[in-house]
Amino acid sequence: MAKRLWDKGATLNEQVHAFTVGNDPELDQELIRWDILASAAHAKMLAKINILSKSELDSLLTALAEALTLSDANSFEIPYELEDCHSALEHFLVERTGDAGRKIHTGRSRNDQVLVAQRLFIRDAILTQCSRIGECIETLHSRVKDIGHLPMPGYTHMQPAMPSSVGMWLHAFIEHFLILLADGKRLLDTVNTNPLGAASGFGVPLPLDRNFTSELLAFSAPQRNPIDIQNSRGRYELRTLRWFSDIASATEKISWDLIAYNSKEYAFFNLPEELTTGSSIMPQKRNPDVVELLRARASRVRAAEFELVMVTSKLPSNYHRDLQYSKEPLLRSNAQISEIIPMLSLVLSSISPNEDTLQSAMSDDLYATYEAYRLVGEGMPFREAYIKTAEKTATGEIRKADLEKEFESIDASWRAELKLAESDFTSLKKDLKSWAKRLHAIEEPLLRA
Ligand code: ARG
Q: Which residues are catalytic?
């Protein structure tokens, strides 16, 4: 039977083993590819400082390439008795390369090994979620083009407030997602330093070339101070989860609006039948379960942020096994966000407006504020115009037909803002594309001898 890395012959207590390993073998399936790439960088560096010979490095790279192929096909095995992906990988390398495999752990610890794997995972996750957000923005854009001209009442306190439009409402979410994209880009800069080389959290007395591994893995620089590096386990994960929570907040708001506007009471939009579910008892029902679950999944993403705060706060400096639990909330939320954004895009691309209902919801009283401003335009002080308009509203003298044209300047102004949003989007897309290019470019050369 394969042995744990640190096994010195003491008898194994199954209950303790099960408790400490938990679901790491399963979770680590998502980290293994990053551990493999970081191991390739580490091996190249060890060869550069003459700890590995050229032929040892070559055999390690061949085995690592094999491991990557297996992991990308979801068939790299992480045996339960080996605890985690790091031990499984070392075991795999020793089996294939003998002494070269027994040398790979020189100058590192599982503590920095897992840090670098999680960091690479995070970098990739941010970039992938950014591209999903980009697709959602494109969906919103095409809906604005398509149905943005339709009028829609604006509500505050869920009470009819002022005239608005479907376009203004959709554009609001474009702006929200653009902020999230810009945040994602900044987050990439923040997380992109190299923890590899901190070892257990105090460095090692070897001339490790951390600039070299940083370059190989496209990190901007080595992260500084081994203690801080170890203390940062969970810290960048938390920033990522906060960003995920912000994505979740946007989703919640849109979902809530859609649920309300799809209800019989508003009836502004219809969801296609395939995006609704029926009731087992009430034959007439078509329920917006998909959108409700979007809202609830968003809450679960926030809960994961809270879980991570609880697990990683109030710890002293350095590594503690508690930090193992920084992994699950990160992986779980990333999986949630991966499903949430595309589902949101699908919903947004499928809603169909009820033009008649939207038109008839534009009641006269929505235009009261416009009337007040019309009076202001005639020179009346605003407070007086406000009182006068309130009286007119009570006697039913405000008429939409007289005031409708006033929306034109507001319409023109959000449309001009939408143009600015389009240009921000173009430049963010360009930046993210160059990030993606830079990150994807590392893989092939890393495994090349
Ligand atoms: N699975 C462990 C984790 O995620 C790997 C690091 C183990 N390190 C240790 N000192 N026990 O934290």
A: 157, 279
